[in-house]
Amino acid sequence: MVLGMAGLSAGGTALSVMGSLKQAKEQNKLAKFQAKQLEQQAGQTEAAGQYAALEQRRQAEILQSRALAIAGASGGGTLDPTVLKVISGLAVEGERAVQSEIYNSKSQAQAQRLQATSTRYEGYQAKKAGTIKAFSTALSGLADAGGMASFGMSKPAGGGGSTPSYIDFQRGINRGGFN
Predict the structure, then answer these.
(1) Is the pLDDT of residue 61 over 50?
(2) Tally of domains in the chain
(3) Quick check: is 152 in a domain?
(4) Largest CB tally within 10 Å, which of 22, 50, 109, 122?
(5) pLDDT tens digits, residue range 99-109?
(6) Which one-letter DSSP state was computed for residue 158?
């Protein structure tokens, strides 16, 4: 009977250990998948930023062209210093907008890549913690099974009935001694 209980305890421990290891592996796998998604999003963010920058540049060129056309149509001359100053200001402002789009997209992509690295590290830590938990469970379960097999059932000091002295041992209570 006692050995059967010890065997059941060892079997339960083995299942618990396998469950902990499987859970740790799956958490790590999920973290790697999430990190890969974040890295893909970072690439998409950069691509969208480059497209937005190209659109900003196109809009700035259209605005400069329009200003030049209006200046020419007004009869003031396209090489007038004031007209050139306005067009130059439009070009500078357009380039600032282009560079801002590029900077913002690269910053956001970098944050996504850092998040991917962090997620990957969390998965590694979860796997490591799960492995430690599994070994801890294994050692504890083996100690319990060994205790059951070693202590078995004992008779209380009064002689009436039998109690599992191992349970008493685990609780730190001695209700009849270990015979």
Answers:
(1) yes
(2) 1
(3) yes
(4) 109
(5) 999 999 999 99
(6) T
